[in-house]
Amino acid sequence: MPGAENHDDHVLTKASEDYLEAIYRLSLHDQVADGTVRSVDVAEQLGVSKASVNKALSTLKETGMVEQSRYGRVTLTSRGRDYAALVWRAHRALRLFLETDLGVDPDVADREACLMEHVLSEDTMGRLIGYLERQGLRIPE
After folding, report:
1. Which helix (H) or strand (E) holds 116?
2. In 26-36, which positions are buried (b, 16+ CB within 10 angstroms) versus exposed (e)?
3. What is the CA radius of gyration of the chain?
4. What is the per-residue pLDDT across 1-22, written as a single tens digit (0 to 9) for each?
5. CB–CB of 24/66 below 8 Å?
6. What is the mean pLDDT of residues 41-51?
7. Which residues, listed in sequence order, are joined to residue 38 by a DSSP beta bridge?
8. 71 in Cβ contact with 62 (< 8 Å)
9. What is the mean pLDDT of residues 92-109?
10. C-alpha separations of 30 from 33, 34, 35, 36 in Å
11. CA 130, CA 80: separation in Å to the nearest integer?
């Protein structure tokens, strides 16, 4: 999660990271071979309006994280894909830690991991991932 408002390792706001992560996750599971996603699918996944997605996409385009075709399909740039992959990995690692080490209910762990992924430094996340790996835990895909 490569400089942001409140933490040096985050260049995007929490909201922008959420949109980027949603695009990334959809691109991994979408049936379209080119990895593009529809903005309506992003809206549905995040439970927001299409107008909110369009506004977020404008910001993400300005930061060089996404590109959008004239037909509306969204593609992550290589920079956006790398950033989103880090956010999504942080989410999964935090969720795993909360569930396995602290015994947090899976739904609660997922919600809270989403909050935490935006504020922890890259160094702290690296340490957490190292801890999980030393425990013999593998971060799920």
Report:
1. helix 106-116
2. bbeebeeeebb
3. 15
4. 543 334 456 789 999 999 999 9
5. no
6. 94
7. 73
8. no
9. 96
10. 8, 9, 7, 8
11. 24
